[in-house]
Amino acid sequence: MQHSYFGSHQRAPLQLALNHFSTLRDYLEHFDCSKKLKLYIHDAEGVMFPEDFREAFPSPLPNLKHLNIVMNSAERG
Question: 71, 45, 49, 44: which is closest to 60 by C-alpha?
Fold first, then answer.
């Protein structure tokens, strides 16, 4: 079963996800003049935009040629 982030029956977790990705997109848009970008992350899922979101909104980084994502590999205790 496929879920849409833009369905009429949004639940609180979906709204939180939308808020997260909207905020992240707005933040990344500040680097739209960059051709290279390096992101340091702790959670890969936090930067994987849902397909519905990607289809609804344009890329915040249209000029980006190289994206380097560095994931913190430290275990959480």
Answer: 49
> What residues does each domain of the chain span?
33-77
13-52 pLDDT tens trace: 777 788 889 999 999 999 999 999 999 999 888 888 989 8
Tokens read off for 70: 């560095």
DSSP calls for 4-67 = -TTSSS--HHHHHHHHHHHHHHHHHHTTTT-SEEEEEES-GGGG---HHHHHHS--S-TT--EE
